[in-house]
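TA notes, week 10

Several of you asked for a full example with nothing omitted. So below is the full record: structure tokens for the whole chain, then the designed sequence directly under it. When grading your own attempts, check the secondary structure regions first.
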């Protein structure tokens, strides 16, 4: 079946979803979900996400040059969706969703305590790409809650990370298939 080429990304589903936290120069926090996100380099460690140009997330990163990728799990999916709402600049989606800010190890931007893990980044560069802006961040710190790390690996069945399909549709990852 032929599909509309502008909807190609729906075939690339499900995609990991993260809650990106930022702060403006006054320190007012923001959180927004993104599923156009991917690692791009191990050495140096770089991660990228695509943002619509009008997002508060992008404006805040341009001001402070810092952001945190928070990995949510199924237990905060409803709160993640609240963070997707359009709030006026300066209104904290973190507070609106009743999530908990936590101090990050290396950047001024807080993480979200209820997350599985956190990737702290400083802006490496940005590049316009069609109707989005690709933001590439250098990873300056990465952490995961101990209970989700087993034998040097991410314990996916225990963590139950969420993946975005489209709109309000998500997948909860609970099983790993190993090719022998």
């Amino acid at each position: 079946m032929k599909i509309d080429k502008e909807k190609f990304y729906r075939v690339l589903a499900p995609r990991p979803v993260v809650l990106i936290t930022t702060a403006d120069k006054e320190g007012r926090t923001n959180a927004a979900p993104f599923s156009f996100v991917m690692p791009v380099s191990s050495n140096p460690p770089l991660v990228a996400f695509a943002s619509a140009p009008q997002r508060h997330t992008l404006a805040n990163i341009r001001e402070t040059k810092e952001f945190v990728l928070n990995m949510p799990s199924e237990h905060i999916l409803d709160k993640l969706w609240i963070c997707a709402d359009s709030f006026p600049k300066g209104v904290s989606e973190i507070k609106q969703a009743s999530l908990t800010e936590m101090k990050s190890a290396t950047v001024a931007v807080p993480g979200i305590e209820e997350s599985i893990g956190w990737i702290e980044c400083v802006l490496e560069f940005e590049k316009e790409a069609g109707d989005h802006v690709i933001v590439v961040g250098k990873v300056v710190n990465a952490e995961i809650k101990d209970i989700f790390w087993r034998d040097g690996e991410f314990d996916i069945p225990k963590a139950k990370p969420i993946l975005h399909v489209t709109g309000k549709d998500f997948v909860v990852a609970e099983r790993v298939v190993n090719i022998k």
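The first strand starts at residue 15 and ends at 16. Use that as a sanity check on your answer.
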